[in-house]
């Protein structure tokens, strides 16, 4: 049957050709992904590092700048200060976060959802707001310092806010939700059979805690420690407001770059900031690699049994924390509405009219919303598509390995470092190598909305990427195999199956990008321009000029926008879940 | 393949959109004028020149200066407006300034402009040191009101003063420069050492100490006169004290930025910036302007505001600025413990 054979032959050929071209498209896309990450992460970082090794005139001077740095006590003392603040913050934050997470996962706490929600509030706020709220609580004319304007005199106490005390309190508020989230996940991944075994072997509660609970969450604990450390070590918003004369690395970078436009010293301090951060990041990565899943197919989820005393203690603890967080932000809201703090306590919207204050007012606010939407939309597309390519492509191991590494790397980069690196890289008119000048093809992005969006996408890339990867891992690879053998091109499978199934993760990434882009100040403060003023930067600038009440008002607007987005997200997720996640219901 | 094409088309549109965005043409003005002054003046400009779209980059003097110097190879701003003359001298030395004689230059008094025939900078007004003193807090703390620089180093004020960092703030620099010029360098630094003992913290901007005094965060803020009057107008319990020894001061001046393409709008702006119309607005809140417009001295200033100004050698201040700031930073910045 020559005809039949021929027909079969051509069909097969077509099939292989398609598979072939598909492999090429995938290869091309992964290669493009690597080039993109090179252009927006590796090259800017390289430019930053090289800047720290040259003098003001651009001549190579080796480590001379670093020697100068460590010989200038005004600068080098900041390293110790930053370490001190970050370590103390981490200890407090992880302890509190552990207590809260334990209450959420291992006790019969009522209204767990509400408690978790309240504890997450700080995520919606720029860290500058933490500093500002503290000024209104504990500053010389703070609510508590004054004993509630003399109404509750016995509560009056002056904690000496400006300096390490203020920085540590703000950073604890900032990092607590992160520690709590990581530990909640770690604590919920457990096997009840371990506890049954421990119990039947006659181990005491305390012994069980140290021999079962702690070892089972050690990876989460390590992760929480490093995440809190990195965040507290690199944050600059709160220290800027309440740091007083207590210098830390992050505020030094700002002072060097913005205050004196000493970009070389800014680069040097950035490298000093980067080293411990990258170290913490690497240790965490290496440790996490050893993690093996504790959840086996036969695992039994742990359902806490009521224990009145324990439950009551944890209820008190969680209520106290939730109350403090809410009271903290309500104070800020109240302060933003007071006419002349602390002399004329009349409420109104005076400070929400930003004419006559710096930073750009409502134009800046709406710029921020636009930037956050762009960052979220483009960010979600990029992170999800790249996670898909890396996760769901067979073969190409080396290339995928590189792409994966480049996608994880941004987590180790503080915002200030990204911002400064972007100035160096995107503002360069071109580069000369051995007399050949290459014009910078990306120079046109400098001082535009584009560079702001890009810095946000990179700044918040890793967490989004990991969220997408986790979601994709839950999706059986059979989908790809089946569609491939049926001759369906992979992008169709991607848009028809993968994306809808992973919709909850997609929406979560969108919200994560939006909320963080609204609140961030560290990278964008170096990159905004006269016609791309931003709300968070306006908060910083108004605080610099001493307009603390309008700064507080603008920060409250950011919080409101973020909470609105969280509500929209909640509604959309509910609707989308019903539509696309019906398959998960049996 | 359709989806892929769509994706490519989308990214193409995006890139082109970004490119178009980057090419928007505006007049970019760098200024260190106060945030609450700028909209008042700009409203007038927009009325007189509705076809020019002014984009403002506003920050403290030190930051604007540093920014201009850092961008020397690739200047961004078209015009510098209302920024310390000592800073513009530095910018001039760096070759960033294009000499320009704005219309109406002949009216400007000689002390308020660069001496070159076609001046490199032209002043609009002078601003001077003033102490913002919170009367309620002073009474509560039982502190005497200081009347001179000499009073400020009295140990009773320990931890009660806030002053701007001269590296970032123009007000901070002109105050430090005045102290060094009046007392001589050696005695001047000794005085600043003593003053440091009383300072609770140094701020980024020159207006912040006054605003902090206005909200009671500090009883006394070393700031500049305009700020004190405005905070009082807003209902804050502050009075402005002019030091007996005289006030440090500087000229807020304008300059044209040397660029490959100098816009006509830049010249129009500089002409406008010393026009009688806007000069009247300056004079409402500043007693010493580039030329006399016959306005009464704003309330609260000394009757002879010019006599309050010290003998100020701008050339010396500009030439020694970097050295003074380095010395100041080494002495007082990064002392982690303000007590």
Per-chain topology:
The complex is a heterodimer of chains A (586) and B (339).
Chain A: H1 2-51, H2 64-71, H3 73-106, H4 112-119, H5 127-138, H6 164-188, H7 192-200, H8 205-216, H9 218-234, H10 237-242, H11 249-259, H12 263-289, H13 308-337, E1 338-340, E2 344-347, H14 361-392, H15 397-408, H16 415-427, E3 430-433, E4 436-439, H17 449-459, H18 461-473, H19 478-485, H20 490-501, H21 503-519, H22 535-544, H23 548-580
Antiparallel strand pairs in A: 1-2, 3-4
Chain B: H1 2-22, E1 27-31, H2 38-48, E2 54-58, H3 61-70, E3 79-84, H4 85-93, E4 97-98, E5 122-134, H5 135-141, H6 149-152, E6 161-164, H7 170-183, H8 185-198, E7 199-203, H9 208-214, E8 220-224, H10 225-233, E9 238-241, E10 249-257, H11 264-273, H12 276-285, H13 305-308, H14 314-332
Parallel strand pairs in B: 1-2, 1-3, 6-7, 6-8
Antiparallel strand pairs in B: 3-10, 4-10, 5-8, 5-9, 5-10
What can you tell me about this protein's structure?
The complex is a heterodimer of chains A (586) and B (339). Chain A folds into two domains: 271 residues, Orthogonal Bundle (MetI-like fold); 216 residues, MetI-like fold. Chain A has 23 helices and four strands. Chain A is globular. Chain B has 339 residues and is of the alpha/beta class. Chain B has two domains: 162 residues, D-Maltodextrin-Binding Protein, domain 2; 140 residues, D-Maltodextrin-Binding Protein, domain 2. The longest helix of chain B is centred in the first third of the chain and has 21 residues. Classes of the chains: A mainly alpha (586), B alpha/beta (339). At the A-B interface, helix 3, helix 11 and helix 20 of A face helix 1, strand 2, helix 3, strand 7 and helix 9 of B.
